[in-house]
Design a protein that fits this description.
- The complex is a heterotrimer of chains A (about 220), B (about 550) and C (about 325).
- In chain A, about 75% of the residues lie in helices and about 0% in strands.
- Chain A has about 220 residues and is mainly α.
- Chain A has one domain: Four Helix Bundle (Hemerythrin (Met), subunit A) (Up-down Bundle).
- In chain A, α4 runs antiparallel to α5.
- Chain A is elongated and about 65 Å long.
- The relative contact order of chain B is 0.13.
- With about 325 residues, chain C is an alpha+beta fold.
- Chain C is elongated, with a radius of gyration of 27 Å.
- In chain C, about 40% of the residues are buried.
- The chains are: A mainly alpha (about 220), B mainly alpha (about 550), C alpha+beta (about 325).
- The interface between B and C is large, with 100 and 92 residues.
C-alpha cells in the first residue's frame, strides 16, 4: 500500500492503530480539513451577525468603518499573505528535506504573525484612546451611537477571535521550528508541517474576508 | 461479512488470535492487560475510553434524574410544596443542560461508538487515540464547570438561554454554565472528527461503504452534524457570555440588537443537535432488529441514505422552533414544509425495520424488547412532530407540555431505549459476561409502561394549554400531573434495575464467549472481552452485512447460549 | 375556567379551524400507528422463533415498495403543510376593523389598554363576536401572550411590536398564560380573558373613572414632549410632517424606500439616526429612556390617526 521506498526507519513513525505511513498521513490531513470546516462554522456565526446588522444599519456601518485605519489593516493583509507564502515554501522545504531552510521559513512565518499582532495592537490601542471600545467609555460623536457601538462590538469580536487563532498559529510555528531544527521532519516525515500549513492558510483566508467587510465598507 | 453464525472454523479463518474456545472468558483482555488508575487515566484504548465515558455520563444522568424527580414530586400539587419558584426554575434548567449535553449527546457515540466502531470496521483503534482521550478530559472539564455553576446556585434560564433574559436579567451563574457547555462542545467536535476519519481511512480490506453495518452509517451521519453544528453553538454561547460580562453585544435591543437573532443562532445548532441525539439510536436499532430476527435489513441503501438525508435536512428546519417568535410568516412556511419533509426519512426507517421482521425468526431477548419499544415510542414521538410542523397547530401547542411530551417520546422513549438496547446487546462483548435475562426483560417492560404513563398525559395537558416551565399551575390540570408523576416513579424503577444488575453481572454474570448472539459483524469475531488491539490480524470482508438466515436459524435458542 | 376537561373550550373562530386540523392529524397518526404496530405484532407472533411459518425467499428490498412509502408520505406531508399554512396565514394576518388593544408585557404582569383608554392588568374584557387585535411589546425580556381557549399565541419581544388577533364566539372566562419562560414568576404571569355580551361590554367600558382615549393621550404627548416643536408646519426646524405618513412609503437618504409602519415609527422615536428620510438632516434627538412603552404606543396611535388625514402639500 505504501509507495515510499524509504528504509525501515519510516515505519517507526507509524502509530499503532495505522497499517502504514500513507494511511496515517491521509488520516491526519483529513482530520485537519474537518477541523477547518468546524472553524468556518465557528466564525460563521459572527459573519452572520455582521451581515444581518450591515443589512439593517447600512448607513452607520459605513461611517464607523471609516474610523478603521485602512493603511494598518491593509499592511496586515500584506503581512499575512507573505507569511502564507513563507509557509508554502516551508512545506516545500520539508518535502525536500532542507532542514535549515525549513527552520528559518517557519520562524519567518511566526515572526510575520507577530508583526500582524503588533500592528493589531497598535490599532486596538488607537481605538482605545479614541473611545471606540464598546462599553462604559464608548463615545460616538454623531447620530445613532447605539448602532455605532454595535459595529465596533462586532469588529472587536471578529478581529479578536481571529487574533486568538493567529496567536495559536504563532505558537505552533515556533514549536515546529524548534522540532525542525532538531531534525524531526527529515526523511519524508513532513506531514505535520503540511497540516500546520493548512491551518495557517485558513487563518490567512479568514483575514482576507474580514478585511474588506470591516475596513473597506466606507471607502469606495 | 464472513458468515459467523456457526462454529469456530470461520472464526479461525477470520483472525489468527490466540483461540479461546467458544464460551470461554478471555483471560487476557483489554481490562486485564494493564492495572491501576494511571492505566485508565492515560489509556489510549478506545474501549477503555468508552467505559470512562459510560461512567461519567451516568453521574450526570443521575444528577439530572434527581432534578426531574424533584420537579415531578413538586408538580403533584398545583401550588408549591417542596421548592421555591427560583429553585424550580433552576431544576428544569439543570435537567435540560445535563440531559442534553452531558448525557444524550455523548451517550451512544461516546460510549458504544467509541467501544464498537473500530471493532465493527476491523480496525485496531480510532484514527486519533490520543485526541480521543483528550476529548474525554475536555468532556469532564466541561462537566466540572457545569457542576461548579450548579453547586454555586445554578442557572435559571432554561437550557435554551434565551436573550435578553440570559444576558441582562438573570442573576444566576449563566457564564460558568455556558462555559461548561462550550467546553463540552469541543469534546463532541473531536469525537465527530475522529469517527469520520476512522470510517474514511481505517476500514478493513473488502469493507466498502455499502458493506458497512448501518450503525456505522448512522455514526457517520451523526459525526457530520457534530462537526458542523457544534461550532455554531460555541460561538453563540461565547457571544452571550461576553454580552453578559461586558454589557454590550448584538442581542440587546437597547443597543439596536435583536434578541431573536440569538434564537436563530441557538436553534441552528440545537435542531441538528436533536438529530445527533437520535441518529445513533436508530443505528443501534438496525443492528438489534437484524440480529434478533435473524435477517438482513430490508432496504439497506434506503435506511443508510435516510440517515444522511436526516443529517442534511436537519440543518434546514431550525425555524420551526420560532413560528411565534416574530419571525416572518413566509419564513415560517418554508420551515414548516421542510420540517414535514425531514419526517419522511425517519418514516422510511420505521417501515424498513418493520419489513425486516417479516419472514424472520424473532427472538424476544432483552435487546429486542428495547428495539421494539423504540419503534413504538419513536413512531408516536415522530408523529407528534407532524403536529408541531403544522403551523396553525403549533401556534397553539408551542411552548406547552405537548412539546415536552413530543421530545421526551423521542429522547427517552427513543434514544434512551436504544441506548439500553445497545448496552444490553454489546454488554457481553464489553464485559465478557451476560446480564441476567429475566431481570433484563422485566426492566424493559417496566420502563415501557412507566414511560408511557409519565408522558402520554402530557400531550393532553399541552393541548389543554398548560405552558412548559410552570412551577405553579391551574388546579384543573392536577390529575394529569399526578398520573405523570406516578409513571415517573415506575420509570425510575425501570432504570434502577439495569444499574444494579449490570454491576452484579460484571463479576457474577454467566460467561458469554465471543458471540453469544451468534451475530454477524466484525466486533463479534473477537474474544469477550476483546484484547487490547482488537485483532491480531486485520480481518478481510467478503460480503454484505447481516448475512443471517432466518430459515436456518429457526431452531436457534439464543437464551441458552 | 377551572373546570376539569380533557379538551380546551372552543371559544373563538380560530379554535374551530385549529381543532379541525388537530383532529385530522390525530386520525392520520392513529392510521400510521396501526399501519406500523399491527404488522409488528402480527410478524412477532407469526414469525417468532420456532414457529412453523414459511420463511423461504425473504425479500431484502423493493424499489417499488420503498418509493411507495416515500412518495406517499411526501404527498401527505405537502397536504398537511398546506392546510396548516393556510390556517396560519389567517391567524397571523391582522384583520381590518378590529377593536384595538395595546399590550405591554413585563416581569411579571400584563398591562393592557383599550383604545377608549381603559386600562387593565392581567385581565382583558372583550365583547362577543367582535374581532379584537392586539399590538404588543415587552418592557424587558421576551414573554408570550397565550389564550388556549382561542388557540392563539404570540411572543412579545422587547424592541419590536408583534400582533395577535381573535374573534371570541363564546362568553365566559378563559386563561391567559405567559408562554415564554421569563424568569422567577413566569408561572404566575397569568390572567383571564372575560368575553361579555356586547351590551355588557359597553357598560363595562364606561364604568369606573372616565379616561381619555389612547389617541387623545397620544396627541397630548405629541405636544407635551416636544414633538410638535419640530414636526409642525411653522417650526424653525426642518422636520417631516407626519400627517398622512402612516403606512405610506418613505424615501430614505440612502436611496431605498421603507413603509412607515409601527416598527418604523417606534425606531424613529428611539433610534432616529437609523433611517434618515431623504432630504432631511440627522438632527432628531433620541427619546430612548424618556418614554415608556405605553407612551410610545399611544404616540403611534395618534400618528396612526393623523396618518389617515391627507398629507400636507410641501
Amino acid at each position: 500500500m505504501s509507495t515510499l521506498t524509504s528504509p525501515a526507519s519510516e515505519d517507526a513513525f507509524v502509530a499503532q492503530q495505522f497499517d502504514d505511513i500513507e494511511q496515517q498521513r491521509e488520516a491526519a490531513k483529513l482530520g485537519m480539513w474537518i477541523f477547518l470546516a468546524t472553524e468556518v462554522l465557528f466564525f460563521g456565526g459572527l459573519f452572520l451577525g455582521y451581515t444581518i446588522y450591515r443589512f439593517t444599519y447600512g448607513q452607520i456601518f459605513v461611517e464607523t468603518s471609516r474610523k478603521l485605519d485602512v493603511i494598518l489593516g491593509g499592511s496586515n493583509t500584506a503581512v499575512l499573505l507573505v507569511s502564507s507564502l513563507l509557509m508554502a515554501f516551508a512545506v516545500r522545504a520539508a518535502k525536500l528535506d532542507q532542514r535549515r531552510m525549513l527552520t528559518w521559513l517557519l520562524i519567518g512565518t511566526g515572526l510575520l504573525g507577530c508583526v500582524f499582532m503588533s500592528i493589531k495592537g497598535v490599532e486596538y490601542h488607537k481605538d482605545y484612546v479614541d473611545h471606540l471600545v464598546p462599553g462604559r467609555h464608548f463615545e460616538w460623536h454623531g447620530a445613532d451611537s447605539q448602532n455605532a457601538q454595535l459595529f465596533f462590538w462586532i469588529y472587536f469580536a471578529m478581529t479578536g477571535l481571529h487574533a486568538i487563532h493567529v496567536t495559536v498559529g504563532i505558537g505552533i510555528m515556533l514549536v515546529l521550528a524548534l522540532l525542525a531544527w532538531f531534525g524531526k521532519f527529515s526523511q519524508g516525515n513532513h506531514n505535520t508541517v503540511e497540516i500546520a500549513g493548512l491551518y495557517w492558510h485558513f487563518v490567512d483566508i479568514v483575514w482576507v474576508f474580514l478585511f474588506p467587510l470591516l475596513y473597506l465598507v466606507g471607502h469606495r | 461479512m464472513n458468515s459467523t453464525i456457526s462454529g469456530s472454523e470461520s472464526m479461525k479463518s477470520a483472525t489468527e488470535l490466540i483461540v479461546e474456545r467458544p464460551g470461554e472468558f478471555a483471560r487476557v483482555n483489554y481490562l486485564s492487560v494493564h492495572h491501576g488508575v494511571r492505566s485508565w487515566l492515560l489509556t489510549k484504548d478506545h474501549k477503555r475510553i468508552g467505559l470512562l465515558y459510560l461512567f461519567t455520563i451516568l453521574v450526570f444522568f443521575l444528577i439530572a434524574s434527581i432534578a426531574a424527580a424533584l420537579m415531578r414530586i413538586e408538580l403533584v400539587t398545583p401550588q408549591p410544596k417542596l421548592v421555591t419558584s427560583e429553585t424550580y426554575n433552576k431544576l428544569f434548567t439543570i435537567h435540560g443542560v445535563l440531559m442534553v449535553w452531558f448525557f444524550l449527546i455523548p451517550s451512544i457515540p461516546a460510549v458504544l461508538g467509541n467501544f464498537i466502531l473500530p471493532m465493527m470496521i476491523g480496525a485496531r483503534d480510532v484514527a486519533f487515540p490520543k485526541l480521543n482521550l483528550m476529548s474525554w478530559y475536555i468532556f469532564v472539564a466541561g462537566g466540572a464547570l457545569a457542576l461548579w455553576s450548579l453547586v454555586h446556585g445554578g442557572v435559571d434560564t432554561g437550557w435554551t438561554f434565551y436573550t435578553p433574559y440570559s444576558t441582562t436579567y438573570a442573576n444566576t451563574h449563566v457564564i460558568s454554565m455556558a462555559a461548561g457547555v462550550f467546553v463540552a462542545g469541543f469534546s463532541t467536535i473531536i469525537t465527530g472528527m475522529n469517527f469520520m476519519v476512522t470510517t474514511h481511512k481505517m476500514r478493513a480490506p473488502g469493507l466498502t461503504w455499502f458493506r458497512l453495518p448501518l450503525f456505522v452509517w448512522s455514526l457517520y451521519a451523526t459525526s457530520l452534524i457534530m462537526v458542523l453544528a457544534t461550532p455554531v453553538l460555541a460561538i453563540t454561547l461565547a457571544l452571550i457570555s461576553v454580552e453578559r460580562f461586558w454589557g454590550v453585544g448584538i442581542f440587546d435591543p437597547k443597543l439596536g440588537g435583536d434578541p431573536v437573532l440569538f434564537q436563530h443562532l441557538f436553534w441552528f445548532y440545537s435542531h441538528p443537535a436533536v438529530y445527533i441525539m437520535i441518529l445513533p439510536g436508530m443505528g443501534v436499532i438496525s443492528e438489534l432488529i437484524t440480529c434478533f430476527s435473524r435477517k438482513p435489513i430490508y432496504g439497506y441503501v434506503w435506511v443508510g441514505s435516510a440517515s444522511m438525508a436526516i443529517a442534511v435536512l436537519g440543518f434546514l428546519v431550525w425555524g420551526h422552533h420560532m413560528f411565534v417568535s416574530s419571525q416572518s410568516v413566509y419564513a415560517g412556511m418554508v420551515f414548516s414544509i421542510l420540517s414535514f419533509l425531514v419526517a419522511v426519512p425517519s418514516g422510511i426507517k420505521v417501515f424498513n425495520w418493520t419489513a425486516t421482521l417479516r419472514k424472520g425468526s424473532i427472538h424476544f431477548a432483552t435487546p429486542m424488547l428495547y428495539a421494539l419499544g423504540f419503534i413504538g415510542l419513536f413512531t408516536i414521538g415522530g408523529l407528534t412532530g407532524l403536529f408541531l410542523a403544522a403551523l396553525a397547530v403549533d401556534v397553539h401547542v408551542h411552548d406547552t407540555y405537548f412539546v415536552i411530551a413530543h421530545f421526551h417520546y423521542i429522547m427517552v422513549g427513543g434514544m434512551v431505549m436504544a441506548f439500553m438496547g445497545g448496552l444490553h446487546y454489546w454488554w457481553p462483548k464489553i464485559s465478557g459476561r451476560l446480564y441476567p435475562e429475566l431481570a433484563g426483560k422485566l426492566a424493559a417492560m417496566i420502563t415501557f409502561i412507566g414511560f408511557n404513563l409519565t408522558f402520554f398525559p402530557q400531550f393532553i395537558l399541552g393541548y389543554l394549554g398548560q405552558p412548559r416551565r410552570y412551577h405553579v399551575y391551574p388546579p384543573e390540570f392536577q390529575i394529569f400531573h399526578v398520573l405523570s408523576t406516578a409513571g415517573a416513579s415506575i420509570l425510575g424503577v425501570g432504570y434502577l434495575m439495569p444499574l444494579i444488575y449490570f454491576i452484579w453481572a460484571w463479576k457474577h454474570g454467566r460467561v458469554a464467549g465471543p458471540n453469544p448472539w451468534r451475530a454477524t459483524g466484525l466486533e463479534w469475531q473477537t474474544p469477550s472481552p476483546p484484547p487490547e488491539y482488537n485483532f491480531e490480524q486485520t480481518p478481510v470482508v467478503t460480503g454484505p452485512p447481516y448475512s443471517y438466515s432466518a430459515e436456518k436459524d429457526v431452531d436457534l435458542d439464543l437464551a441458552s447460549i | 375556567m377551572d373546570q376539569f376537561r380533557l379538551f380546551p373550550p372552543q371559544a373563538s373562530t380560530t379554535s374551530h379551524e385549529v381543532d379541525a386540523l388537530f383532529f385530522a392529524l390525530t386520525l392520520i397518526s392513529l392510521f400510521f400507528m396501526a399501519v406500523i404496530f399491527l404488522p409488528i405484532i402480527f410478524f412477532s407472533v407469526k414469525y417468532r422463533r420456532g414457529s412453523p411459518a414459511d420463511r423461504s425467499n425473504p425479500r431484502s428490498g423493493s424499489f417499488l415498495i420503498e418509493s411507495g412509502w416515500t412518495i406517499g408520505p411526501i404527498f401527505l406531508s405537502l397536504g398537511l403543510f398546506a392546510w396548516g399554512a393556510v390556517a396560519y396565514f389567517r391567524i397571523e394576518r391582522r384583520p381590518e376593523n378590529a377593536i384595538d388593544v395595546q399590550v405591554v408585557g413585563r416581569q411579571w404582569m400584563w398591562k393592557l389598554q383599550h383604545a377608549e383608554g381603559k386600562r387593565e392588568i392581567n385581565e382583558l374584557h372583550v365583547p362577543l363576536n367582535s374581532t379584537v387585535a392586539m399590538t404588543m411589546t415587552s418592557q424587558d425580556v421576551i414573554h408570550s401572550f397565550f389564550i388556549p381557549a382561542f388557540r392563539v399565541k404570540q411572543d412579545v419581544v422587547p424592541g419590536k411590536y408583534t400582533g395577535e388577533w381573535f374573534k371570541p364566539t363564546r362568553t365566559g372566562e378563559y386563561h391567559i398564560f405567559c408562554a415564554q419562560y421569563c424568569g422567577t414568576q413566569h408561572s404566575r404571569m397569568i390572567g383571564r380573558v372575560v368575553v361579555m355580551e356586547p351590551a355588557a361590554y359597553e357598560r363595562w367600558l364606561k364604568s369606573g373613572e372616565p379616561t381619555e382615549s389612547i389617541v387623545q393621550t397620544g396627541e397630548r404627548l405629541f405636544h407635551d414632549r416636544g414633538c410638535s416643536g419640530c414636526h409642525a408646519p411653522n417650526s424653525q426646524f426642518h422636520a417631516p410632517l407626519l400627517q398622512g405618513l402612516y403606512r405610506n412609503a418613505v424615501p430614505l437618504a440612502n436611496g431605498t424606500m421603507v413603509t412607515a409602519d409601527d416598527q418604523y415609527l417606534r425606531d424613529s422615536i428611539l433610534q432616529p439616526g437609523k433611517q434618515i428620510t431623504a432630504g432631511y438632516q440627522n438632527i432628531m434627538p433620541s427619546f430612548a429612556g424618556h418614554l415608556s412603552e405605553e407612551e410610545i404606543m399611544q404616540l403611534i396611535a395618534y400618528l396612526k390617526y393623523i396618518g389617515n388625514q391627507p398629507p400636507p402639500s410641501q
